[in-house]
Amino acid sequence: MRSAGGAREDGACVEPQAQTRMIDVLSITLPIYIMIAVGFVATRFGAASPADIRSLGSFVIRFALPALLYKSLAERPFVQILNAQYLVVYVLATGLVFAAMYALARYLRPGDPSGDAIQALGSSCANSGFVGYPIALLCAAPAASVAVALTMIVENFLAIPLSLALAESGRHVGKSFSAVARHLVVRLARNPMIIAIALGAATSFTGVALPKPLARAVDMLAMGSGAAALFVVGGTLVGLKVGGVTRDAARIVAGKQFLFPLVVLAAQLALAPALDGDLRKAMFIFASSPTLSIFPLLGRQYGQERVCAAAVLLATALSFLTMSALLLVL
User: Fold this and answer.
1) Cα–Cα dist 131/125, whole Å
2) How far apart are the C-alpha atoms of 301 and 59, rounded to whole Å?
3) What is the DSSP string of 200-217?
4) How do the residues of the chain divide into helix, strand and coil, expressed in percent and rounded to 5?
5) Which of 129, 170, 235, 245 would be 307's cystine partner, CB 3.0–4.6 Å?
6) What distance in Å separates the CA atoms of residue 329 and residue 59, rounded to the nearest whole number?
7) pLDDT tens digits for 248-273?
8) Taking CA 199 as the corner, what is the angle to CA 197 and CA 202, rounded to the nearest 5 degrees?
9) Do the beta carbons of residue 279 and residue 86 sit within 8 Å?
């Protein structure tokens, strides 16, 4: 029943208009653009030097991001983040897209297996924390926190370690398998992100929390990861010769923005038709998010920094259209 002014008197929720949804999405994605622009302008006009950008990038990858990963896992009960159907679907989709894009890159770019592995990561790993999660809160609030935890488990225990392992193995072609395996184990064991994931999972499983002063320090580091990572992305774009990386960046973005959501949708229909509706919706939102913002930082040590930065820029720009259209459908 409506009053004279057209308002619902029974208190029922009214589905938000498509226009309102688009405004909500823009309010989430626009700050991402602004932070990238701030990094670009600061570096372009000398407020930050390329050396500053590299140092800030090292801070993010070694300290701030590991703190965020630890926090995202440690703060959720272990039993809460175990949903077998969600994990099976997302693991399968991630693995299939990674394998397909890696094989395609190997065919188009022979001679650089390390770079190919990093590029495949860009098509199979989303900006789940900084873009996917806020949008999932708009459309699937009850399941958003569980979904982001499950998604980050797949990304951080499968996609990123697999990519780094293949990238490292590509640097040691010709050596014995045992020598390469030992090198990979040692390098991954020293990786701050891998250490943070393992510690976060252990904390979630045991329920043994950090002492409050240490926990607050971790929180402070984690809070700085998003803005710092986007600032570094913007600074990396200064002097980018797009013509030299357009093909690789476009292939990465096509895999992430179109292939990955389609594979996730197909896997949902085939393997998890009974999956909770909000979880299904949240998973599709994460799959449709642009590539992870730290992509250029991960690609730096393998000579892929500029390609990765261009892919982040293109994917984030394209996501304005793709995710706005997705919200209209959802």
Assistant:
1) 12
2) 15
3) HHHHHHH--PPPHHHHHH
4) 80, 0, 20
5) 245
6) 39
7) 999 999 999 999 999 999 999 999 88
8) 110
9) yes
The H helix count followed by the E strand count for the chain is 17, 0
User: Residue 28 contacts by C-beta under 8 Å, 6 or more apart in sequence?
Assistant: 131, 134, 135, 138
Helices 84-108/242-254 angle, 10° precision: 140
Encoding tokens for residue 132? 């996917």
**What value does the mean pLDDT take over residues 308-330?**
81
Neighbours of 64 (CB within 10 A): 23
Residue 2: strand pairing partners: 8
Pair 252, 307: CB distance under 8 Å = yes
Name the DSSP letter for residue 2.
B
Over residues 90-122, the pLDDT tens digits come to 999 999 999 999 999 999 988 888 899 999 999
**What pLDDT, on the 0 to 100 scale, is given for residue 174?**
57
Please name the amino acid found at residue 310: A
